[in-house]
Protein: DUF2231 domain-containing protein
Amino acid sequence: MESRAKAAGHAVHQQLIVFPLGLLATAVVFDLIGLVTDDGRFASASYLMIGAGVLMGVVAAVFGLIDYVAIPRGTRARRIGIMHGGGNVVMLVLFALSWLLRAGTGGNVPDAAALVLGLVSLVIAGGTGWLGGELVDRLGVGVDDDANLDAPTQLTTGISVRRAPGVAP
Structure:
């Protein structure tokens, strides 16, 4: 199924997700660098990136929801979509909590709870990112109206190479 929300011919959700993923992953990396180097500027930058990443995540989620509601009920794509979206909501809430824990300190030197929330969130983002890839790459959600929304996972069927129509193996 093709995306219901497009800009310049491409799915908006898929264009936007690079921002929260990049910002939030980099925020965790900056926290670790700041911790190792004892340089508060990294923690301050991380604080700002988390705020921007959560905001962009909410914007991306709106477009993801638009695409999700168009997926037919009872399909594998619908089940994966709910795990993908639900996991991303949890991830954004955990990052927002990490951001709030830092707010009283001006964003400098996050405490252990803020760091753990960021690390756990990053692990969740890895899982939900894989699920998003499964939706787009394997099931064709957002890119192909003739997609098989019930295609099996590559984890059980092995790795396959998609070929253009008419191209011999």
